[in-house]
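Table S2 (text version). Query chain:
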Amino acid sequence: MLSRPNRLKAKEVERVFEKGQFFLRTPYFSVKALVLQNTVPAKFTVVVSVKTAKRAVERNAIKRRLRAALRELAPMVCSGATVALIGQTASVKADFRDLVEQIKKAFLKLKIIKSQN
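Corresponding structure-token output:
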């Protein structure tokens, strides 16, 4: 689970999906992001629909893997960024390091990451 300051609340999730400026798709996930010019820490949520994975066990596995990857990258994301990751079925079988690299590349492409370290 992400730490409390890095979690999006329900209303913030709705705002990201309604007003999010950036959208990017990869085989493992899609990213919807909204960057606000303020000093609050970056916030994230992970969403996996029933359409993606019918069984709750599969959806939860996808969410756990994506959250673990986000925990590693959270300190590098610019403050004020609100990000929704929409999980795909392929992320369950992906190598974890590959998943982290894909998220990092997506964040770099969206220009919401501070450094390339």
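Notes on Table S2: The beta strands are 22-25, 29-35, 43-47, 81-87. The mean pLDDT is 89.
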